[in-house]
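Task card 7
Instruction: Convert sequence to structure tokens.
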Amino acid sequence: MLYDHHMGIRFKKNITFKTKKIMPANILIEKSAEHIIKSKYTVAFTGAGISVESGIPPFRGKHGLWNRYNPEVLDLSFYLENPVHCWRFIREIFYDFFTDATPNDAHLVLAKMEEKGLLQSVVTQNIDNLHQEAGSKTVHEFHGNSKRLKCLKCGKMFDVTDIDLKNIPPKCDEDGEILKPDFIFFGEGIPRKAYENSFADAENAEVCIIVGSTGEVTPASFVPRAAKQNGATIIEINPQESLFTNYITDVHLKGKASEILNQIGNHLF
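Output:
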């Protein structure tokens, strides 16, 4: 039994490996499209892998950012004590490197699926705002959004494009307090609204499409597990096996997110 201390939700843990028939890739694509077309409620669950093709590296793994930067700059306690030091790295990581990133075809196909009524929401672990820029309307940002800055004293929100990040740390124009990016730091809880909406959609889902998530980060990884527990068909799009593959995945489509979703899109519209 898995226990999520954040919301007190229990999940059954399936400890047996699923046996899957090996099918040609084109048949798996067609099968996935059929599941989506028949579904009355489909949710996409996305992780860092969907944004890699937009030039945004993941935090974890061989080429992850934490191999180049100390994660303590995103530790809330350390940040509150050393905001000037932390902002030097925050600016470099989130606002210098990735400022020109644009949505790729994977983001665009998901947005079009929503437009056509084939996708009800996106639950994303990403903080890059690329789903919204692609046109997705219902996006549950499990870990927040780097495009917003928040005053921890008065709660006022700022669009990062309205802030001059040449002068750091940025400060609130109401009370002079140092602003914090509106995404989750280590030591912070998940935004309640995003959490509740994500699990509500997972419980309603007939199909859950996992895109670019390895399943390593909790409690986010419990979202597709909750969908599976409530009877959803799980379609996984990842180039390699993940922590989902042998436990909850029904159809594993191996490859780049944009290529696979474009192929699915060809069957949908």
